[in-house]
Amino acid sequence: MNLDNIEMRKENKICYITINRPKALNSLNKQTLIELEKVIEEVINDQNILVSILTGTGEKAFIAGADIREMKDFTDREAEQFSFMGQKIFNKIENCNKPFIAAVNGHALGGGMELALACDIRIASKDAVFGQPEVSLGIIPGFGGTQRLTSLIGKGLSKEYILTGRYISAQKALEIGLINHLIENEELINKSVDIAKEIISNSPVAVSKAKNAVNFFDQSFLDQGLKKEAELFGSCFDTEDQKIGMEAFLNRQKPIFKGE
Ligand code: CO8
Questions:
Q1: For every one of its 260 residues, what pLDDT tens digit does the chain have, with 9 covering 90 and above?
Q2: Cα of 60 from ligand 1 centre, angstroms
Q3: Smaller CB count within 10 Å for the chain: N or C?
Q4: Strands annotated E in 29-179
């Protein structure tokens, strides 16, 4: 498979997927999302793969969000479409018949945190930092964060983090149930592999059915919620604040929002 922004390696029934755009802190542009979808299809179709471990290249970032440079000039329609595209691919991870483990090795912001949320198990190194900082850019989470974060940590905390855009340390993430384990940086992949092996020792068909059953817990709410999120996400791109927020980020300035 020809991949420019993702590295994929298969070993002992595990597929190692590494988002690899270090110059843009592994942020997700369209090309990377298209490649991610191909990799997920490969995982689904390869009978020899039973678990996937998803991480980011380098020590600074797991994934620093969707690519702001690419998104900046989207129209509301393009933004809504991009949101649907990301949601569809992240749903494939959530609905895949094989588990995905997110090994979060640094900043997991915006779309990066949303990708981790779509995985089944989240393991973070001590340097990991989580956050949904979209409101500081004049937009809202658009790859499922409003729904999956709420499902995971509850409405109260989810609203606090999404409305403030505040970063969440790895320790705090553990306390609020956002991650399953907090691990020394150098042990992150080993711990992920240990958990993958535990899963692999079980019946693949039972693992798949168990994942499906747990997903069903809030599936009907999720589908409706994602639709609403994409619609609202798109509408942000019809505002002055979205332009102000993204220009400010790219020019390394603090945005002064107008509220329109
Ligand atoms: N998109 C594009 N480029 C990025 C991104 C990004 N999300 N994050 C970092 N970069 C680039 C920087 O522009 C910089 O590039 P250059 O060297 O060419 O100027 C390079 O990566 C290194 O970044 P910094 O110099 O900023 O590194 P620091 O160590 O100073 O800071 C941070 C690291 C804290 C991670 C900082 O880069 C940051 O805050 N990044 C943006 C985080 C963010 O706001 N993410 C949310 C994006 S919005 C989103 O994800 C919405 C998801 C839903 C999308 C729906 C579809 C439309």
A1: 899 999 999 999 999 999 999 999 999 999 999 999 999 999 999 999 999 999 999 999 999 999 999 999 999 999 999 999 999 999 999 999 999 999 999 999 999 999 999 999 999 999 999 999 999 999 999 999 999 999 999 999 999 999 999 999 999 999 999 999 999 999 999 999 999 999 999 999 999 999 999 999 888 889 999 999 999 999 999 999 999 999 999 999 999 999 99
A2: 11
A3: C
A4: 51-56, 61-63, 100-104, 107-109, 121-125, 129-131, 168-169
Q: Which of 226, 237, 64 is nearest to 146 (CA)?
A: 226
201 Cα–ligand 1 center, Å: 39
Instruction: Catalytic residue, from 35, 80, 114, 229: name it.
Output: 114
Q: Ligand 1 in contact with 246 (CB < 6 A)?
A: no
Active site residue 80: no
Question: Does residue 35 have an active-site annotation?
Answer: no
Domains and CATH numbers, the chain: 6-185 (3.90.226.10)
Say if residues 38 and 3 touch (Cβ distance below 8 Å): yes
